[in-house]
User: What shape does this take?
Amino acid sequence: MNIHEAGPEHLDEILELFRETILHVNKGDYDANKLKAWAAGAEDKERWAGKIDSQYFVFAKLNGKMAGFSSIDSNGYLDTMFVDKNCQKMGVASFLYAEMERKALEQSNDKITSDISITARPFFERKGFTVLKEQRVP
Assistant: This one.
């Protein structure tokens, strides 16, 4: 597995992975309406291009294919982490998280914060995260 910095040329692949991950991986934790609304976030290409431009935004490749992506801002806020539906339980999230930790330390951030999904909560708890507040979307 290799880490690559994302650029504008990767936007469509990132958005497809985002959409597919939400619709397939998260379906056990959210109802269809919430999944559809969340996945629709992929339609805002300008917002995503801004994330790629302003954050440390990387993707992991496994066997020549994008297996997942993650991003962190300069304050240590982990903004995104999504793993392809066909690459779950293969160490991709841990690989990406290790890179986010490395970058946070490089940026002199002593902690990483994030808003995480119900689906991702067990992973982040294993990485030492604690829940400060649960958010509910109506």
About this structure: The longest strand covers residues 65-72.
